[in-house]
Design a protein that fits this description.
With about 375 residues, this protein is mainly alpha-helical. It has one domain: Growth Hormone, Chain: A (Up-down Bundle), CATH 1.20.1250.20. About 80% of the residues lie in helices and about 0% in strands.
């Protein structure tokens, strides 16, 4: 399941220039394409408690996989409007699965082991998307390079259908307004932090290849650096979440990794083509904070049902905040002649994210 949650997004960035050129649209349209999945994540996250009042977690996961597979299979072969709608459909499936999986983790055994497995597989799916989409596109064309990512979803659906029934919340608490729930549980800062780190991460996913290509880096190398950047998160997702889950002060972990994002963005702002390998490694450490944020969401809930509500509220509000980023970067790029203004805005976001992380602990 987790391997399917990021290719819908990560395969677009390395091929964004080819996609916008094919549809004859500009950077503002590219901003819409990169921002749309975040709106989908937000909407489906907020709606998940209502959805689960009518269907089981297992059925929700099957519907999520169906949406991912259908959206990714269709989007390369239609016009720009169809591409946008199909991307939205795939992102709805990915968002639904992302909210449901923490509930399964809370009800499925050793939380620390399952958190590490979930976050590592999610990061691995992102790495595969970055690393393979450009070679596939050069070999088969960008349309097949994107369409082939629909294949893992039906495979996962078959395994889920044939496997044991997944645990589901025995009694889902009554859904409440997300903002009220965040205030009641003391999780408002967690939602804000989640939104800012997601904004930084998805701006990087959507726009960094264009930054590197404008700096003289080849398309293959730009995709490779993006894959390397995300690959750094795999060992972090494997080893650090259990430490965060057992820590009384997870804010120190969140702030430390967030500071790496600040340093990496500074490198790409000052000299993007000089040492992209170094900047990618540093920024990759910063973006690995995503798995730590999911860990905090998972362990803060006392039950599987509470995990659904907390995950829904934090991710829903957070992704609404994050969705502003990719589109704003596209607008800033359209207004200027260089990447200075967009990267300065991204740097300011990462600085605020780091400062906010330093104020959080498990029980704010």
């Amino acid at each position: 399941m987790a391997l399917n949650l990021r290719p819908a997004v990560t395969t677009v960035g390395p091929e964004l220039d080819s996609i916008t050129a094919h549809f004859e649209v500009g950077s503002r349209a590219g901003g819409v394409i990169t921002a749309l999945p975040l709106f989908a994540f937000a909407l489906v996250s907020l709606a998940t408690p209502i959805i689960l009042a009518r269907i089981s977690v297992r059925t929700g996961l099957l519907w999520a996989l169906t949406s991912i597979g259908a959206g990714l299979a269709v989007r390369p072969w239609v016009g720009v409007t169809g591409f946008v709608l199909a991307t939205f459909l795939a992102a709805v499936g990915a968002g639904l699965a992302t909210v449901l999986l923490p509930a399964l983790i809370r009800g499925g055994g050793s939380t620390r082991i399952l958190v590490a497995t979930f976050t590592t597989a999610l990061q691995a799916g992102a790495v595969l998307g970055f690393a393979v989409v450009v070679p596939l596109s050069q070999w088969l064309g960008w349309q097949w390079g994107l369409a082939l990512w629909a294949v893992p979803a039906p495979l996962a659906a078959v395994l889920l259908w044939r496997g044991h029934r997944s645990p589901a919340p025995a009694a889902l608490p009554r859904a409440v307004a997300p903002l009220r729930y965040l205030r009641r549980t003391g999780s408002t800062r967690l939602a804000l932090f989640f939104g800012l780190q997601a904004m930084v991460g998805f701006v990087v996913i959507g726009w960094l290849p264009s930054v590197l290509r404008d700096a003289g880096v080849s398309a293959v190398a730009a995709g490779g650096y993006l894959a390397l950047l995300t690959c750094v998160g795999v060992p972090v997702s494997l080893f650090v979440p259990p430490l965060v889950a057992g820590s009384a002060r997870p804010s120190r972990w969140l702030a430390g990794f967030s500071a790496c994002a600040v340093a990496g963005i500074v490198g790409f702002l000052v000299a993007p083509g000089a040492a992209p390998l170094v900047w990618s490694l540093i920024l990759g450490l910063g973006m690995a904070v995503f798995s730590l944020a999911l860990t905090v969401i998972t362990v803060r809930a006392d039950t599987a049902g509470e995990a659904v509500l907390l995950s829904s509220a934090v991710q829903g509000v957070g992704y609404l905040i994050a969705a502003l980023g990719p589109y704003a970067i596209g607008v800033f790029r359209h207004l200027g002649e260089s990447w200075t203004l967009p990267l300065c805005a991204l740097l300011l976001t990462a600085i605020v994210q780091t400062a906010l992380a330093a104020t959080m602990d498990r029980h704010p």
